[in-house]
Amino acid sequence: MAITFVIFAGLLTAFSNYYMRKSVDAGGSSKSFLMIQLSIAFLVAILLNPIRTHFYAINLPMLSLGLGAGMLFGFMMLFLGKALENGPPGLTFALLSSATVIPGLIMALFFGPSFGFDYKLWHGLGSFIVILGLFWAGWGVVLIRDRNRWIFFSLAAVCLHALFLSTMQYRSLAINFSNSPTFLNSHEAQSQWFMPLIYFVAALMQAFTFFSAKSKRISSIEWRYGVFGGAANSISTFFLIWATEIAGSLEQAIIFPIFSVTIILLCNFWGQRFYQENVNWKASQLSVLGLFIATVDWKAISSFFFP
Asked: What value does the CA radius of gyration of the chain take, rounded to a whole number of Å?
């Protein structure tokens, strides 16, 4: 069931990404789309988390973590929108998904194997293969309005996405280890306001960006794509978190790679199908292979088959 949930989450994220590009193509701006998307995602996150679980308690440590993660997420979405305005969507989202190989290294450097974060040779090898595949995919791309701007915004989004994913793993560390060196304990980390806080801060940041730029009036089609994109993004996050909660030992080792691979393949598909993007499928397959090598918990898989 966890694998089904994570594939469904990847499908919804790909739809959300597609709605973002459609909104820009319809004459809208990434600012208006993100403001609507994140506002809707905030409301859906409240329904799916504190209201659904009837767990309304909030604490200062969780408030601090949620606000910090929300700023990272907000800036990441801002840079992502700018990257999409200057470059190919499929390659941009594939590059963003590659950030999943970085948090493991960050957590291993700060917390080590005693808290479940071990970095082995295959992690580095897989990460190198991912980067190689992405460079191969982008080598012949000519549909970039301003290559330097696209590279800057894309890489900034990747770095922020990696830090954002690390905050999610930081929270998971606090929940699973009572002796973890985190600034919040297990009970505080289980507060259901983590995701709503992230979307709330990100929505505020996008609203400030939108109104300070004196953007034009939002059209009905921008509202439509923003609402659909926001609902899809929030529900995707809900199913992804749910998958981590119900996954068995073998499923835990492969759910994040499957999530990332689903997004890369689907975004490349609609990039080629609807935008005639020159997708290098061999390079995409190489990146997918590297993603699996870098993020799959091979030790857990081997212990499952050879206890």
From this structure: 19
